[in-house]
Design goal:
mainly alpha; about 75% helix; 3 helices; about 100 residues; single chain
Length: about 100
């Protein structure tokens, strides 16, 4: 009974391939990284506009600096997520899934 059930579910293909679930998770992680990095770029742009339109007001300049800081941290984290995903896939030995 269980043998028939497991025959219909493909967990892993040949050595070095991801299963369908692995491909979905990899795709979702890739989409997350792209969206997160895109939002970081938009945040950096907003911070730049805040800085250029602050007209020397120390309060607005400080606000722009904080925006730059958090947008930079967001960009770093999203790039770090991409690197971790890529390294883990290489470590597992899955080719062509970057």
């Amino acid at each position: 009974m269980f043998e028939e059930m497991f025959k219909t579910i493909e967990f892993v293909g040949e050595v070095g391939e991801l299963s369908t679930v692995g491909k979905i998770v990899n795709g979702a992680a890739s989409v997350f990284v792209v969206i997160a990095f895109g939002l970081s770029i938009v945040s950096l742009t907003v911070a730049f506009v805040q800085y250029t339109t602050s007209m020397g007001d120390p309060k607005n300049i400080e606000k722009a600096h904080k925006s730059f800081l958090w947008a930079g941290i967001g960009a770093f984290v999203s790039l770090l997520a991409f690197v971790i995903k890529t390294v883990l896939l290489k470590y597992v030995g899955v080719g062509g899934m970057y």
